[in-house]
Amino acid sequence: MIYPETFEQKLGFDQIRQKLVAYCLSPAGAAWVDKMRFSSEVDFVKILLKQNLEFRQILEKGEPFPSQHFFDATDWIKKISLEGNWLEAEEFLHLAYGLETILACKTFLVKSAELYPELHKLSQPVTITSQLSQKIFTTIDDKAQVKDSASADLGKIRKRLRDEQSRLRRLAEQIFRMAVQESWVPEGALPTIREGRLVIPIQAEHKRKVKGFILDESATGQTVFMEPTEMLDANNEIRDLEHAEKREVIRILRDLTGDFRTQLPVLNAAFQFLAQIDFIRAKAKFSLEIGGDHPVIEKHPELIWYQAKHPLLFLSLKGKRDVVPLNIELDQQDRLLLVSGPNAGGKSVTLKTVGLLQYMLQCGMLIPLSDRSRVGIFKDIFIDIGDQQSIENDLSTYSSHLRNMNAFIQHAGDRSLVLMDELGSGTDPNFGGAIAQAILESLLKKRVWGVATTHYYNLKLFAGQRQGVKNAAMRFDDKNLVPLYVLDIGKPGSSFALEIARKTGLPQSVLMEAEKLVGKDLAGFETLVRSLEKERVQLAEKIKKMERQEADLKQSLAKYQTLSSELETKKKEIIGKAKEEAANLLKDTNREIEKTIRHIRENQAQKTETLRVRKGLENLTKKVNTQQVQKEKPVQQKEELKEGDRVKLLGQDSSGVILAIQGKNATVQFGELKSVTKLDRLEKITGAVAKEMASRLTTSSLNVHEKRSTFSNTLDIRGRRVDEVLSLVDQFMDTAILLGQSELKVLHGKGEGVLRKVVRDHLRRYKEVASISDEHIERGGDGITVVVLK
């Protein structure tokens, strides 16, 4: 149930219908817009939303879905259904074009059945074949004329007609030349047609000199148009042939109409499909315009929305300023939300946003909110918005509000959504607030869902104490006295009445008197609410700051852990290598000693041999000492480090700057990371090290040359989604700018132009872009974007 009858006008849905009609390509599609209705059937709503989403994806990808010849065949089908009636040739031609469009739509959806399953299901009842349109094209040409070949009789009649017309022209030219020679013809006049017959203009004073019939005369009466006797028979013959031609054409069209009369069920289904596709396409176009998306659909009532926007407000402010999005949560525990705050602070807009988006969704339209939002399905929506005073029914504004409240209490249930603006207003505040509280209590007992706005303090206190309803406030800048249009759930809002009155320039004495009249309790409550609001804002800012700091800390910790892990790995590699070298050296030394002992024993310690072996041992000792010196050399020759030196970790490539030295430890800045490490693990970057790093840069430049050799200046993004395309374009532009390219091309196809617009808008953000234009018409036109870089 939707209440009241003026529901759509009050929420602005009638304006959305008008926009959808403007997007339709045919009156048949517009008729579907008029038939669009609110539905509480969950599965049906899901199918409608899926159809909308699939067609939006077609538009986003710029796919070549047919968009021409969306004709409304309603009148044609009615004419065909009448026995003995026939369609005119032009109507048949348009019917053929429409049939070809239907076949093209069906072919597209059959090929894309996996991508667009719900749209494909719509095409399944369509059983027409190309034979129907071909039957028309064999009979009627592209100028909407029945072809000579449509029948043998028509061909003969038209041949005779052309022959007679040719003979009549020759005869007319002969008589006309003679009349000109006799100066009977007005200067500049030529043979012409009157009443469907070829005639010759003759000056009135010479009309008796030409035998024939006068068919007409000029406005001045100085010229008469005569049909000479010699031309009479030819004109009569032509007239008879024209009638015969018309009779034969009607017979052909009647027979063709009869053939199509047997196909009426097929035609009905086909053009019903075309009209429905037109309607879905219009919804998809509107979804793109407002940023509509598909939220999570729940079977039972639920209202947990993120980043919701009023679509009409979004369109009206587009290009001027952004709409502040709405976040709102209603669940099984808290079904009612009481919104308070200053006038013009956005309370009514919040109410209308909830009502309009819920109604749009249950009419099968995508709505502008985050796709992670959860939207339930309601059985009823009731609204009480605006001044509903009625002179005809002798109702005041307050009486009309009460009548609506009565309808809510009588008909609303646990699957109903109730929206009430300025609850309790319009009468004595003491009684109005009490009645409003009683109404809220009654709705809570019936477990009704809803949103209400108010200024009454008793309702704010009620919402703070009663389970099932919670307070919410529209955020307000009390320093500048301007609304922020942000909904804060969980606390009541202040009306800022005195502050706004002070801003308008009311005398201070009047304001002080007003504060006295209000009383300390009420003024204190207002002050407490504003104080809580300030503290809440400050706390929110501190929380955001701490979250940012925590994120930075996590990032730094991750970098440190990565660096520490790399250092530990390198350390283990170096120690393992050193142990291996030491083991090999010890093995070689032991081998030489054993060899020496064996030689001494075998040669019975002869002096000459002993000297030779000893000399060999001395050489081995020198070799070992040399290796030991080479290992100790970096330590012995290590330069003293000081603050400001550029250093690197032993065994690592990353370099940094010493910030401070404390004993044997140093604080080093490695890029964005600060690290404390031992001095003996640091090495000052010398000329040799710098040379080695330069060689690495050379290697990097070789990578750039490799990129240049494989880079293509054309990016093909046809058939891709918008969210894929932007990252591809960014990567393509980064590489092109790095390589110093001068001209690039982005191949996106024509389609609906959505992909082209998104790509070009994104490219204009690059300061390196000098110009953006279409490719030459012979090389692709507006299906390719040419980008010239500075």
From TrEMBL:
<dbReference type="InterPro" id="IPR036063">
    <property type="entry name" value="Smr_dom_sf"/>
</dbReference>
<dbReference type="Pfam" id="PF20297">
    <property type="entry name" value="MSSS"/>
</dbReference>
<dbReference type="InterPro" id="IPR005747">
    <property type="entry name" value="MutS2"/>
</dbReference>
<dbReference type="GO" id="GO:0030983">
    <property type="term" value="F:mismatched DNA binding"/>
</dbReference>
<dbReference type="InterPro" id="IPR002625">
    <property type="entry name" value="Smr_dom"/>
</dbReference>
<dbReference type="GO" id="GO:0004519">
    <property type="term" value="F:endonuclease activity"/>
</dbReference>
<dbReference type="GO" id="GO:0045910">
    <property type="term" value="P:negative regulation of DNA recombination"/>
</dbReference>
<dbReference type="Pfam" id="PF01713">
    <property type="entry name" value="Smr"/>
</dbReference>
<dbReference type="InterPro" id="IPR007696">
    <property type="entry name" value="DNA_mismatch_repair_MutS_core"/>
</dbReference>
<dbReference type="InterPro" id="IPR046893">
    <property type="entry name" value="MSSS"/>
</dbReference>
<keyword id="KW-0255">Endonuclease</keyword>
<keyword id="KW-0547">Nucleotide-binding</keyword>
<comment type="function">
    <text>Endonuclease that is involved in the suppression of homologous recombination and thus may have a key role in the control of bacterial genetic diversity.</text>
</comment>
<comment type="subunit">
    <text>Homodimer. Binds to stalled ribosomes, contacting rRNA.</text>
</comment>
<dbReference type="InterPro" id="IPR027417">
    <property type="entry name" value="P-loop_NTPase"/>
</dbReference>
<dbReference type="GO" id="GO:0140664">
    <property type="term" value="F:ATP-dependent DNA damage sensor activity"/>
</dbReference>
<keyword id="KW-0067">ATP-binding</keyword>
<keyword id="KW-0540">Nuclease</keyword>
<dbReference type="GO" id="GO:0016887">
    <property type="term" value="F:ATP hydrolysis activity"/>
</dbReference>
<comment type="function">
    <text>Acts as a ribosome collision sensor, splitting the ribosome into its 2 subunits. Detects stalled/collided 70S ribosomes which it binds and splits by an ATP-hydrolysis driven conformational change. Acts upstream of the ribosome quality control system (RQC), a ribosome-associated complex that mediates the extraction of incompletely synthesized nascent chains from stalled ribosomes and their subsequent degradation. Probably generates substrates for RQC.</text>
</comment>
<dbReference type="GO" id="GO:0005524">
    <property type="term" value="F:ATP binding"/>
</dbReference>
<feature type="coiled-coil region">
    <location>
        <begin position="522"/>
        <end position="606"/>
    </location>
</feature>
<comment type="similarity">
    <text>Belongs to the DNA mismatch repair MutS family. MutS2 subfamily.</text>
</comment>
<dbReference type="Pfam" id="PF00488">
    <property type="entry name" value="MutS_V"/>
</dbReference>
<dbReference type="InterPro" id="IPR036187">
    <property type="entry name" value="DNA_mismatch_repair_MutS_sf"/>
</dbReference>
<dbReference type="GO" id="GO:0043023">
    <property type="term" value="F:ribosomal large subunit binding"/>
</dbReference>
<keyword id="KW-0378">Hydrolase</keyword>
<feature type="binding site">
    <location>
        <begin position="341"/>
        <end position="348"/>
    </location>
    <ligand>
        <name>ATP</name>
    </ligand>
</feature>
<keyword id="KW-0694">RNA-binding</keyword>
<feature type="domain" description="Smr">
    <location>
        <begin position="715"/>
        <end position="790"/>
    </location>
</feature>
<dbReference type="GO" id="GO:0006298">
    <property type="term" value="P:mismatch repair"/>
</dbReference>
<keyword id="KW-0175">Coiled coil</keyword>
<keyword id="KW-0238">DNA-binding</keyword>
<dbReference type="InterPro" id="IPR045076">
    <property type="entry name" value="MutS"/>
</dbReference>
<dbReference type="GO" id="GO:0019843">
    <property type="term" value="F:rRNA binding"/>
</dbReference>
<dbReference type="InterPro" id="IPR000432">
    <property type="entry name" value="DNA_mismatch_repair_MutS_C"/>
</dbReference>
<protein>
    <recommendedName>
        <fullName>Endonuclease MutS2</fullName>
        <ecNumber>3.1.-.-</ecNumber>
        <ecNumber>3.6.4.-</ecNumber>
    </recommendedName>
</protein>
<dbReference type="GO" id="GO:0072344">
    <property type="term" value="P:rescue of stalled ribosome"/>
</dbReference>
<keyword id="KW-0699">rRNA-binding</keyword>
